[in-house]
Amino acid sequence: MNQPHSVDLIVYAKWIIPVIPSNTVLTNYSVIINRGAIIAIKPASEASSHYTATTEKYLSNHVLMPGLVNAHGHVATSLLRGYADDLPLQSWLEDHIWPTEAQHVNDTFVKQGAELAIAEMIRTGTTCFSDMYLFPDQTATVAHHAGMRCQIAFPIVEFPSAWANDADEYISKGLALRDTYRSHDLINVVFGPHSPYTIGDATFKRIATLASEIQSPVHIHLHETADEVNTAIEKSGMRPIERLHKLGVLTSSTQCVHMTQVADEDITLLQQSGAHIIHCPESNLKLASGFCPINKLLDAGINVALGTDGAASNNNLDLFGEMHTATLLGKAIANNATTPNAHQALEMATINGAKCMGMDEYIGSLETGKIADMIAIELDPLEQAPLHDIASAIVYTHNGHRVTHSWVNGKMLMDNREILALNTGEIISNAKHWQESLSKPT
After folding, report:
1. What is the per-residue pLDDT for 442?
2. Which end of the chain is more exposed for a tag (fewer CB within 10 A), N or C?
3. Does the predicted model carry a pTM greater than 0.90?
4. What residues form the annotated binding site?
5. Taking the mean position of all CA atoms in its chain, how far away is CA 198?
6. CATH code for 68-357?
7. Which regions in the chain score pLDDT beneath 70?
8. Distance, CA of 128 to CA of 183 (rounded, Å)
9. Distances from the Cα of 317 to the Cα of 273, 390, 391, angstroms
10. Residues comprising the binding site for substrate?
């Protein structure tokens, strides 16, 4: 008789949503993990007879699924949550957020803001996030300490900030940070030009050349508002996405954030380039920026991922909320109740985000050979009963607060709601300090 194989971890769950294959829910299955990777997904009875594990986790009323991928945010701005609410984008940004950042943002602000944001993301099911903000070295340090997977898009603008003086210095510091994390298994550093209206042609051309040389993604706010697009046409005669295309920035590694203004010619450029869309529905709604037509984009074969944006314009980093909002909003915009459906929403929050960041070969779904980035959600016996459809229960009934366990690289980040590598009491204390020290908006 064959002896059971020895492995590091077996997680037994009532349900598993692997995301790939799509539209699949497995009942009474287990995920077998060794050295951080998934080596098998088996019925529970088979797992117990064929494997013996150093650690076994039994989750009798839980869904096990891939960890969520938050494809866009400004994590340190969690310290500006609720600071300047109910304002249009340009006033919010130019009259409140940017002046406050100029006065208060430093490496300590970013470190403590990143701790607050990463703790919230772990608690709400995110295992991989993308960040674009000042002092990106501090965010990378916190992510490393917490054990979170991330993409750090180092910011680039033409004007000075507390972190750099001009575009050349932003790029130089960003590339140095990339060298620091070149071999890191959880942290990937990429280009983060802020937007077409804060970057000149010469800088865009340089970014395009460097990104091509080192095969780096480019993460950029694009077509966020109608005013942005109209102003660009008045100044240059081109829509912003057309300008990026002509300058060589729009490629299969470009991550276009927001895209609330989408014309047919934009879709053609997206199809031709293979660029990705990152939809941030709640931030767009709060700032009245517009509506991203995700059904039209998905029907055109364009990859659409989800992001929360920063908590300063959201006011939370709960990607389950984004799934819920994106799905309902998408149905309303398309006047079609059938799409996006619950499984499509799960894909946008997992495998599509991984694909956007170039990580879909190893995260974004629970498959043999992939890395064990995954979460467990406890389904409430009252608020979600009866459980006619597990995917529907996950997407439509607000589950961020029901995430109980989280793993990245097969390593546990949260056990029964307790975050293992971060001091939540200290994080809350630091947030209260910043609440008291930040000047109030006028």
Report:
1. 45
2. N
3. yes
4. 72, 74, 101, 194, 221, 224, 309
5. 23
6. 3.20.20.140
7. 1, 439-442
8. 17
9. 30, 23, 21
10. 101, 194, 224, 309
